[in-house]
Structures are given as structure tokens and as C-alpha cells.
Fold this protein.
Amino acid sequence: MINLKKLAYIAVTLFILYYIFIVNIFLTLSLIAALYVAFRLYKMYIRHKLNKLSGSKDLFRASALGHFIALVAKVAKSDGRVSELEAQLITMMFDDISKIFIEKEKTKTILKEIFDEEKQSIDDTKQVAHSLNRLLGSSRLKRIQFIGFLIQLAFVDDGLSSDEDKVLRIIATELNITANAYDVMLHKFENMTKRQPQAMNPNEAYEVLDVNKNDDFNTIKKAYRNLVREYHPDIMVSQEKDAAYIEEATAKMQEINQAYQIIKELRK
């Protein structure tokens, strides 16, 4: 009897182990495969849906992405001008966005047209932000990413102006981001700016841009633009990363811009 009980225990144990390590693994792998296929199908659906936007400017403008471009234009022009670095970042943002579309050049043209039209006036900022909030549904992460990118755009050249701050606060309010949450984000960027060397000397500036003192200004400008392209925050990539990604990119961009401005002044 004892041997039979032992055999029964062994048989039950082997069955349990078989179920755990064989059947469960099969089920787990099947579930993983099903989730992967579902994810790929979802990505294909999103890509197909996005590519339909490049069919017309009006269709693109009515989308969440079109509304975001409109707000980028409002923030960039809120202080009266679009700076050289802001213009470069916006151009690169258009490149980043258009990469996910089949008709890349057509999409880029639409983005530029929306930006040029929307920068003509900031009076409708509240309405545009309110409409974007409705299009974003319940996604708080998207709201945080969008406002973070807009703050970065305002900070990246000469810091945040009062006009830029005013427009950003209107957008944050309409995106259901509290004043306290906005201030926390703002302080992160401000603290990051304070960590940057305030008195970079010319030698350090040349080193940051990886150029020589004897290089002509066209060479220096090309190096500057290449670094901006390399380190600029990608709005599409940022959707897969945490908030630190944009903050770190902004810090690097400010260092590059500071070095460029110092050398530009020396070459006058």
C-alpha cells in the first residue's frame, strides 16, 4: 500500500509538473503570439488611419496631430518671432512626423502649410487647445507629452518669455493639466537650465560643437545643425519614452545653442 501511495503521489506530482511546465508554457506562448499579432494588426490600423490624413490638409488639420502642430505654431510665434533654433527644431519635427507616412513629402508640405497659417494669430489658442483636449480622449500621457514638448520648444533658445508662458498656461488649462502640475514641469526645465554652465568660454564652445578655431563659419554652422539634428527631441519617439527624455534632449540642445551663439558673436 505504501508503494502504491508513493506511486500515486509521484504520478500526481508528474501530472502537475507536466501541466505547469508543458501545458502552461504552450498556453503562455500561444497567448504571447496572439498578443503580438494583435499588436501588429493594431499598429497597421493606426498607420493606415494616419496615412489617410495626408489625403487632404483639412483632414490633417482636424486630427489631434494637426491641432498639435497648430499649437506649436502659437507657442513659437507667441514672443513675436520664430528664432533660428526654433525654426530648425520645427523643421526636424516635420521630418520626424512625415517619416511614418507613405507620402512623406506631401505630408511635410501639409505640416508646413498648417504651421504657417496657424502662426498668423495666437488669439484662438484656447479654442484650438480645447478642441485638442476633446480629440485626445482619456489619454493623460499624451497631454503630458504634448505640453512637455511645447515647454521644451519655448525654453530651447533664450529661455521662457512671459508671452510664451502665458500661451503655455492657456494650453495646459485646456488640456486639463492643473496649474500645479504645469509649474512642476516648468521648474524641472528651469532647474535644468540653471545646471548649464552660464559662462561657457570660447574654447569650451568650440569643443561642444566639435570644431576648430580655424574652421570657417559655414563649417561651424554645418556642425551646429548636425548636432541639433542628432540631439533634438523626436516627438514621435518621445511617445515611447518617459518625461526625462525631453528634459535631457532640451539640456543638450541648450548647451549646443549656447556654444553656437558664443562662436557666432566672436565671428561678427
Summary: The mean pLDDT is 79.
